[in-house]
Design goal:
- The chain has 661 residues and is mainly alpha-helical.
- It contains 29 helices and six strands.
- A six-stranded parallel sheet has the order 1-2-3-4-5-6.
- The chain is globular and about 90 Å long.
- The two termini are 19 Å apart.
Amino acid sequence: PYVTWKTTESVLALGRWRAAELYYREVDRLLWDLSMRECNQQVAQLANKYHSELQESNESEYFLGRGSASEPYRSVLSYLRMRLWSTKGYFEKYYYYLRARHNSSNVTPNKRPNLMEPQKPGIPIYEDRKEIMSLLKLMHRSLHECGDGAIADGRLQDMIRRLQCFGMHLLTLDIRQESGRHELAMDEICTHIGAGKFSQWNEAKKVEFLVKELQNPRPLVPWDFPCSPDTREVLDTFKMIARTDPSCLGAYVISMARAPSDVLTVELLQKEAGVNSPMRVAPLFETKTDLNNAPRNLKRLLSIPWYANRINGCQEVMLGYSDSAKDAGRFASVWELYKAQEGMCAVGRSMGVRLTLFHGRGGTVGRGGGPQHLAILSQPPRSIQGSMRVTVQGEVMDKDFGLRQIATRSLNCYAAAVAEATLLPAVAPKPQWREVMEKLAVESCNYYRRKVYSTKGFNEFFALSTPVLEIGNMKLGSRPSRRSKAGGVTKLRAIPWVFGWTQTRFHLPVWLGVGKAMNTILEQKGTVDKAALIEMYREWPFFRSTISLIEMVLAKADPIVSDWYVNELVPVTYAALAASLHSELKRTISAIKITTGHKTLLETEPGLQQSISQREAYIDPLNLMQVEALKRLRSGRTETALKQALYNSIQGIAAGMQNTG
């Protein structure tokens, strides 16, 4: 809710300003490099033309600078520099104009300042990359023709690549909104035109109405009709999309998508807002139920003739790792994600649609995180066909892309894994493996849900034994920690759910239900399922990856530290619950060791073992400090220094664990 259409529009304007400024600096550097006199005829003609235009400019002395009529490349670059100077000046003014206009909307009408949108300057600006790209490529070709290819392939080639990648907008933003907000908007629209309440219709009636209106050239409703603030925010977002350069925008992601009508609703709202180049729409399937229904819903969506014609054979679908894991536990989540990918890819192939899967992974294992190379190679066979999308969140951004050398290595890992998964698809699971995995998923999900959602006092235990309530007061993101005030764990977002348990070194979301399910099979003597479980770990990349990530998190868990939180912060009435959870943690560690054949966790990765062990010496004092700070704050003390000590401990533990949430 804190990222409004105003925020998005301001960020996009800032990106265009920053892009023009960066290209301006790059052209300034190129002026030093390209002083040669020989060029092909096309560059010579342009150089003469631009040199004349520069001489007529009021700023001719500044822009010509080092250029002269006998230096054709410098004449062309001087012209580029003049246009970029004009471009960055305009977008700087436009950015501050937007900020002022957005801020003034909160002021009463009679006190609002009279703001004027900046006029386009006399010197033409670059709206897109086409013109500047053609000039750069022309100079590049000319340099090669004249024997200066080594110079052409230096800084000039770098700038061409940057322009190809970043355009004149620097960044591309996805828009994301929850399906319920779109449904509320349609409720108010349909009520306004006397059509009834959209949310009360069945799916068939919704689809029929939406397709009919998508094909109807007349507007459905006046855009300024009276509506609630939430609906107005949704409608204003679509108006912002309509006036934004399409190259700045990526996909419109619908979180909590459950049916084809969710996608068609967004398409209709884009039409009503006057979006000339509609954004591609990507439904996000998040919960266990939604993932299970995803292939069926995708087939229904692609079977709608209007929509099939609209997408031109390409569809993007986002997969939610965070909420599915919070909803059903680790085993059930990864298995539903695996089956959903298999099913949707099969639907895409059967209907001739190229499907791009967008993996919404978080930073920690509990939210789909972990080594990306391993994760990509363990995807279902034929689910990666030369491309994929994946989110990079939180501390992972700095860890994987904070330094140039590390960023290069990370990108190489992504590219290599995608190429390998495309050319050498992973092993398909045997029927017996599927049966065992299904048993694991069902058993672990049932146990997880009983403990988290049905155990009396679990919500209170979680709130008391972790700093989750205090984390909610920290400025850690664009969204509040809860979707609504009531509802306990159900309405808590996945990030604080994982973050809270990570702080206490208990990591419950990653392993709860895993040990219970595995021990159900391992404790049965002489069964084929037990042998299959061991075989799955050895031969099935998907299962091996799943177990390896759980093993890594369990190596970071510390029952002594987490027990200290319980002893110091939780009343004795919750002792039985705490004891049962700690007992289950031990049983899970035992089950993982039996399956992997390891005597100790991470036995085959001594480097990672050592890294975790070394960090523990620094994290332990932070945990002790955090427990003491929580005790004092919860007793009623309000000193700023005490709050700061708590926040510092939270940040320190997160950095030491290398997982936030």
